[in-house]
Amino acid sequence: MLKVFLQIHRFHRNYMARLTTMLVPHKLTPGNWSLLQFLHAHEIATSSQLAAHWDVEKPTVSSNVKQMLALELIAVVPGEDKREKNLVLTAKGMALYESLSEEVLTMQESILRDIPPVVRTQMEQVLTVMEDSLKEARS
């Protein structure tokens, strides 16, 4: 295995462990956090939009949505088409997002503090190319 893939794997495992530690007291998973982030950024979304954004199957999104509905962090609102169900943050979800986002951002900034902005941009570009290569290989 190339060293870069080992480093990506180790970074991901350690990052997710730190993130999970922050989320567990709020009964959230990293997937739940991603849903909160997406709805905060986009205000409203369907399960299909979430599945496309995360590049996962709809059942993966559905289980996440059920958990978040049970915690009363999101709500379902009808769309223009009666079959369409839109997801939005509740006031409780917005408050939790706002309190947690500061903690998560502080952690992310501490991870990146020694990496200059130009290198961060290069990292994003390289990871995007790698992700695109994986998607092409799947097609």
From TrEMBL:
The keyword Transit peptide does not apply. One of its GO terms (molecular function) is DNA binding. It holds the Pfam family MarR_2. Residues 1-135 form the HTH marR-type domain. Keywords: DNA-binding, Transcription, Transcription regulation. This is HTH marR-type domain-containing protein.
